[in-house]
Specification:
- The protein has twelve helices and ten strands.
- It is an alpha/beta fold.
- The chain has one domain: 3-Layer(aba) Sandwich (Rossmann fold), CATH 3.40.50.300.
- It has an eight-stranded mixed sheet, sandwiched between helices.
- The protein is globular and about 55 Å long.
- The structure holds adenosine-5'-triphosphate (ATP) and magnesium ion (MG).
């Protein structure tokens, strides 16, 4: 199963992705967490030590890797260079860093648009990575995306089995949900769910509920405002290393269960 966590800037994508990865991993499944945000920090929400994280070189920033994997397959069409299907099946094994609870982390980094045209080799490598990355049996891929909707246009989220839109009670965040849902339909992804975050009371819940329902998006969890989450970030530790339980963590545990059931139901249909 491949999931991408998307949404407006600062809504809690990394918090959700990192914690969900560990909760899924605790069930005995392996989890490959992919950080696709150029400003990568998923390591901290998973609970990988800073000393290890500081040594990570994002895959797409590794020029040798990008060059090596794409060089023989570049063709020129109408003046632009297209890199086709670079080989990626060994990438996770070679480059992922081990984290707690059966989670491995792969930092993709950013797509650097060189002067080679509209479809640069690193974009091709990222797309290929997401679509053709060989997962082990019972392995889940969770991708923490960069903020906003640009990644939808680049097609990075195309190979995903489901999108999880994190949304907070605010017009800009809700509008982003609407746009992502529409773009998801354009690229053929119909399994789009929402996670409401920073929900402060019944009226917040209602606002998000109404908007999501108008856009045909099912909400799988309502995570309340929890100052311990913020505190965990301030201290640079993972939410699950800060607390094993609490209102937000319990909602995230519920999210994991709901995801299991909606995705399994779907497979039966
Ligand atoms: N429910 C919550 N209650 C309180 N604080 C929260 C909650 N969810 C997230 N936060 C805090 O909000 C901040 C932003 O969260 P996070 O980094 O997960 O967002 P993001 O969507 O990944 O941001 P970016 O768009 O920059 O990648 C962090 O300090 C995090 O601890
Ligand atoms: Mg983030």
């Amino acid at each position: 199963m491949k999931l991408a966590v998307v949404g407006k800037g600062g809504v809690g994508k990394t918090t959700v992705a990192g914690t969900l990865a560990r909760l899924i991993g605790r069930d005995g499944n392996s989890v490959l967490a992919v950080d696709a945000d150029p400003n990568y920090n998923l390591w901290s929400a998973i609970g990988i030590q800073q000393s290890r994280a500081s040594k990570i070189v994002p895959l797409l920033n590794d020029e040798n890797l990008v060059h090596d994997r794409t060089r023989s397959k570049i063709v020129r069409v109408l003046g632009d260079y297209f890199a086709l299907n670079p080989r990626v099946d060994d990438i996770a094994d070679k480059f992922a860093v081990d984290g707690p609870d059966n989670v491995r982390l792969l930092v993709a980094g950013t797509v650097t648009m060189g002067d080679s045209g509209c479809m640069c080799p690193s974009a091709a490598l990222l797309k290929s990575l997401i679509q053709h990355l060989a997962l082990q049996e019972n392995e889940t891929l969770i991708m923490d995306m960069d903020a906003g909707i640009e990644n939808m246009g680049r097609g990075t989220t195309k190979g995903m089995d489901a999108l999880l839109i994190v949304v907070e009670p605010g017009k800009r965040s809700l509008e982003t949900l609407g746009r992502i849902k529409k773009l998801a339909a354009d690229i053929g992804t119909d399994r789009v769910f929402a996670v409401a975050n920073r929900v402060d009371g019944e009226s917040d819940r209602k606002i998000i509920e109404e908007y999501a329902s108008e856009h045909g998006v099912k909400i799988l969890a309502y995570i309340p405002v929890d100052r311990k989450l913020k505190l965990a970030d301030l201290k640079g530790i993972a939410p699950l290393d800060m607390m094993e339980t609490g209102p937000a963590i319990e909602e995230l545990k519920g999210l994991k269960k709901k995801l299991d059931s909606v995705l399994n139901d779907d497979n039966l249909n």
